[in-house]
Structures are given as structure tokens and as C-alpha cells.
Specification:
Blueprint (H helix, E strand, L loop, with lengths): L1 E6 L4 E2 L8 E8 L2 E9 L13 H7 L3 E6 L4 H9 L3 E4 L4 E2 H13 L4 H10 L15
Length: 137
């Protein structure tokens, strides 16, 4: 499953989703995590009510299960949730590595229901063809 982090410095979760200079994406499993990609959005991001600035960020996280942010506006949160991504607000800046390590421990144990659902969403669908009968006419 992929996890996204809104950040200004590529080290900590310390950015509002709409104003984040960067979004880092990691691949996460109970066995570990790996950096996937950094999306960079420049410096001209201020509170301006411009909803279009969210589109490139939503595109960047489209295949993520979780988004960590310092803050997120109501319409941004609604659009993230509508994309089936679980936003998590981090009240104080926190190192991304620390979040990843704690999340890995949770995945190795008994994850909460919302996290199990996110894991299942990314699991490859399994097909059982044994009961299917194929006839050719």
C-alpha cells in the first residue's frame, strides 16, 4: 500500500495539504517500506481559495491509501476521502521516518479496521476458477 506525506522540507509532516511544497510517497508493507517518489509543487502556494491547486496533488496521491498532513481544508479533505484515501492529521511536526516505523509495527500486529480495509484495497484480487465451468458450443 502507498502512503503519502505533505511536507515543506521532505523530512517531516509539517504542511497543509493545499500549501505543501512536496508530497512524498512511500510503499509500505508489514515487512518494510521504501521511498517511491517525490512530487514537488513550487513555492507560490498560499491560502487563496484556488481549488484548482489541489488537482495536481490529488493526481499525485491517487493510488495512495493514507495521506498524512499537518492540516487540510474541508473541501480538500472531502476530495481526498472521495478518492478513497484516508487523511490523517498530525498535530505537531513529526519525522516521516518515525511515522513509517510506527505504522510498520501496527501492520505487523492487529491493524485497526480502516487500515485493514486499506490493505485489502491494495491486495491483488484472487480468483478461484475451480468452480467455473466453461463450455464451448
Amino acid at each position: 500500500m502507498k502512503i503519502a506525506f505533505a511536507t515543506q522540507d521532505k523530512e517531516s509532516v509539517n504542511a497543509h495539504f493545499g500549501w505543501a511544497k512536496h508530497i512524498l510517497v512511500y510503499e509500505m508493507s508489514p515487512e518494510g517500506y521504501a521511498f517511491v517518489q517525490s512530487f514537488d509543487f513550487g513555492d507560490k502556494l498560499q491560502e487563496d481559495g484556488d481549488e484548482d491547486k489541489l488537482a495536481p496533488k490529488l493526481d499525485a496521491i491517487h493510488d495512495c491509501a493514507i495521506l498524512y498532513v499537518a492540516a487540510i481544508g474541508g473541501s480538500g479533505a472531502a476530495r481526498v476521502v472521495a478518492s478513497k484515501i484516508h487523511p490523517i492529521k498530525v498535530p505537531q511536526p513529526k519525522p516521516i521516518a518515525e511515522i513509517l516505523e510506527k505504522l510498520q509495527v501496527v501492520l505487523q500486529g492487529t491493524p485497526p479496521p480502516w487500515l485493514r480495509k486499506a490493505l485489502q484495497r491494495d491486495a491483488a484480487p484472487s480468483f478461484d476458477f475451480e468452480d467455473d465451468e466453461v463450455t464451448h458450443g
